[in-house]
Amino acid sequence: MAAAEAFQRYQEAKKAEGRPSSKPTLVNLSTRAKTYPNAVPLDEIPKQLEENPEFFELMKRIVTKEKS
């Protein structure tokens, strides 16, 4: 999936810049049932994008600032 590959390239570029590494995590505070975890470490986002269409749609809404 193109989104997952693009995110991996972004992570590699940031790592190459030599920035200090931390463990940032994307947290979803929604209470409705979903097929993905509530907390996703950034390094696992590409995997979730590939494996989970619902997570992909969430990320798409975040990036495009759509309301659900």
User: What can be said about the biggest beta sheet?
Assistant: 2 strands, antiparallel
Strand order of the largest sheet: 1-2
Uncertain parts: none
Shape: globular
Q: What is the residue-mean pLDDT, rounded to a whole number?
A: 77
Structural class given helices, strands, pairing?
Answer: mainly alpha
Continuous helix count: 3
Strand content: 5-15%
The N- to C-terminal Cα distance equals 23 Å
> What is the H/E string?
HEEHH
Integer-rounded radius of gyration: 13 Å
Summarize the structure.
With 68 residues, this protein is mostly helical.
Write up what this structure looks like.
This protein has 68 residues and is mostly helical. It has a domain at 38-68. Helices cover 50% and strands 9% of the residues. The protein has a two-stranded antiparallel sheet. α1 packs antiparallel against α2 (45-51) and α2 (45-51) crosses α3 (53-64). It is globular.
SSE layout:
Elements: H1 2-16, E1 25-27, E2 39-41, H2 45-51, H3 53-64
Antiparallel strand pairs: 1-2
Which descriptors apply to this entry?
globular, 3 helices, two-stranded antiparallel ribbon, 68 residues, mainly alpha
